[in-house]
Structure formats: structure tokens, C-alpha cells
């Protein structure tokens, strides 16, 4: 991908009038997702073999990236797969493709994509964390534990690693390990991450303490509403807003199961939006 980007600049003098390059350069300069998608599409339509496969791969990646950020997942998946067929060394394309596969519950495919990313970018803890989460989703707990250890080594300050370890401990009913990991996640996130309180609520419920579970889930909802408001006000990408809404909706559903009528009503309103 980097080589393609460099070529894009180097080819400017000789190919200034080329329709493919003109549209691709325009897409690179634009910040709006819809505009970026449009000009990448124009570039792809104008592409000829003389423009080269590297730049075509780069264009599909950019459009796939924009479509992912715009929460257009099937279209993004198609672009990223095409980009990787032309340039299998694009680490970011593997990472984004893995995220999409996880959203679709395709744990094995997600693991393959994240594993490719960690091979290409072994020092990035986020890649190891995603790989661990995909292993956990597939029920491969030993492999998940090893990947979480790699993530913790690369980015020890990331609370999401401890949260993943907590979820893994909950799955095997190891309450002390889950509690320890949750406490670490809460400390690292400074008590501001709604998903940490949702995990604590699940632990309390598993222990039979539904009153405390409901209290923790209400705190998760409170933090989730604040997070969503901040993202919306800050004009975050549609995918970030969608993921925040999904976390909040899950918190509402869980609190509703535990008898919180207000959460039931708010969850229905949230779903309607």
C-alpha cells in the first residue's frame, strides 16, 4: 500500500491527465466518506492495465476503508478482498477484513485475517487483541490466552486486553480470575468504559448477585449514553457510532432481563432510532 501511495505522487507529472490517477488523487484529498467512495469508484471505472495493479489495489483498499468507516460492511468486504487479491501484503486490509468477519460471526475467517495482520505487523498490540477475541469467539481458549499475552506485552496499558481475559475467565467460570481482570480493566480505563461495567454485571449475575449486577449494568448504560453523545457531537465515523449504539443496546437488553422496566422502555426507544 505504501509503495502504491508513493507511486501515486511520483506519477503526477507524467500522468497528470490520466483519468484514473486524477480521480484517485481527488479521493486521497477528500475527507468526506461518500465523496471518497465516489471518486474511488470513478477511478476504478477508469482504470486500464497501463495504470498497474498496485494502484488498483490501493484504490480498492481506500474505497473499502471508507465503506467500512461508513458502516457499509458487505461492500467494504468485497473491496478489501479485491485489494488483497492484488496486494496480499497490505496489513491494514487484513485488519479491516478481520473486523468485518468478526461482526458477521465468522470466527475462523476473522482469525485468519488477524493472523496475517500480526505476521505483517507483529508489534501492534491491537492486532493481537483482535486475534485473541476471534479465538475466544471460536471457543479456542488456549490460543486466545496466548494471543492476549502477546497483546499485553505489546500494549500493557490497553484495558481491552484485560477485558478480553475477563470474558475468557467468565466463559470457563473462573470467577476470581474474571474479577481480577475486570478490576485491572476498570483501573486502566479510569472507570469510564461502559463495557467494563457490563462485564462486571455479568460476573455478579453469574455469582447470583443480580441486585449488584443490575447496578453495574445501569452504570454501563450511563457511561454508554455519555460515550454515544460524545461521539455524535464529535462527528465520529458512522461505524464508531454504530458500535457505541450496539454496546448500549446490549446493556439495555441485559438490564431488561434482570427486571429493570426503565431499561426495557429505553431499549425499545433506542432500537426504534
Overview of this protein structure:
The chain is an all-alpha fold. The chain contains 15 helices and no strands. It has helices spanning 2-10, 19-29, 33-46, 53-69, 73-86, 91-103, 107-120, 125-137, 141-154, 159-171, 175-188, 194-206, 210-233, 238-257, 261-272. The longest helix is centred in the last third of the chain and has 24 residues, at 210-233. It is globular and about 65 Å long.
Keywords:
79% helix, 15 helices, mainly alpha
Write the layout of secondary structure elements.
Layout: H1 2-10, H2 19-29, H3 33-46, H4 53-69, H5 73-86, H6 91-103, H7 107-120, H8 125-137, H9 141-154, H10 159-171, H11 175-188, H12 194-206, H13 210-233, H14 238-257, H15 261-272
Helix pairs in contact: 1-4, 2-3, 3-4, 4-5, 5-6, 6-7, 7-8, 8-9, 8-10, 9-10, 10-11, 10-12, 11-12, 12-13, 13-14, 14-15
What is the helix/strand order?
HHHHHHHHHHHHHHH
Q: What's the story with the biggest beta sheet? A: none
Structural class: mainly alpha
Could you say which overall geometry the principal axes of the C-alpha atoms support?
Answer: globular
List unreliable stretches of 5+ residues.
10-17
Radius of gyration: 21 Å
Integer average pLDDT: 91
In short:
With 273 residues, the protein is mostly helical.
